[in-house]
Amino acid sequence: MRHPDNHPQPPSTSPGSPASPASGAFAPGAQTRDDRLLSALLTTAFVVLLAGALLRYVLKHGDSDRLPWIVGLSVVLAVVQVAGQARPGSRRAGRVRLAVVVACWVVVVLLAPSFAWCAVPLIHTALRLLPTRSAVALVTALATLVVLAELRLADGFDPNHLLLPPVVAALATGVFVYLTREATRRQHLIDDLVRTRRELAATERREGTLAERQRLSREIHDSLAQGLSSQNMLLQAADRQWDTDPQAARTHLRTAASIAAHGLTEARRLVHDLAPADLAEGAGLAQALATLAARESRDGLTVRFHAEGPDTHLPDQAASALLRTAQGALANIREHSGARTAALTLTCLDDTVALDVADDGRGFPAPEPGGTRDPLGDPDPLRGHGLPAIRARLRQLGGTLAIESTPGEGAVLTATIPLTPATPPAP
To answer: How many CB atoms lie within 10 A of CB 374?
Structure first.
């Protein structure tokens, strides 16, 4: 098993097997800490079994002429196995060492059957290094040789000598294959989760980018675009009156210049932090609305401002949204309603702030709930955002927008934003 902090790669599969353990997950050159500990345990077990078998042979057959061969091969087996643990190398090098160890072990077992149980660590090593089919074939051969060695050592026929080695080999192989395939499935699940998280993050980034673009379009519409529209109307009026009433034309030009200067300030503020210029330098919403009312009181339109309730310091987002709402509403009043007077009323309560924008213009039929008609919008779809932009800005803060109007009797727009934390309604 792998330590979760080591981020293991999923085991590779060999042709013909659905999930081939031992073909890549346990490559010697890419072992994790737990893999190295397991390798050290297998090497230790092999050396201990080898030493026990050698001691048994020396005690029972110390005068045999095979003893030098047995001791030499045992030393070779121990050195190769320990060297493989000390310097794992590549998977190909590990397979070469396994082949050397298995060859030497076969010779030793043929000379001394008591070395047969050294095959147990070799079985696990083969499963770790070889593809599934090759590993199973080698494990079968090792188990068969162990059975033959046990039968040679037995005084008579013992069923355990015939059944125990295959059962042990089958259990070791089955458990190893199951755990490896389970690790593969778990790694695939982790990969799917990581991929899903990346896709979700990408989706959130795209949605955030789209939302930011929409917010910027509303900010630009309610500040720069409205100012440019007013300048255009003033310049057209000045052009019409240039010959007949030069003084009025110059007044229009001075007003347009003032609007242009304010638009430049707005543009710089948008670049800096996208906050309305009238709210800069600590100005409150009431003062900003009073400034807006004074600036918009021209060309036959008188705008009054009135504040009710305590002078509450509003959150920056709420203040900005209400100021933008007032700017957009006044721009539409000037361009579409034909009103002579308009009133801005700011009402601050303990848990709510409301802004009423009323005019005495020509009015319009009240919009139906859920309808797509925008009574405050520009008839040219390429020019303005109108009511949808105002409603979207308020909805982001959990606020609402209400409109009351009757043809010929003006209109009242009411924007309300809660001051307590609230979950914005779904769009």
So the answer is: 19
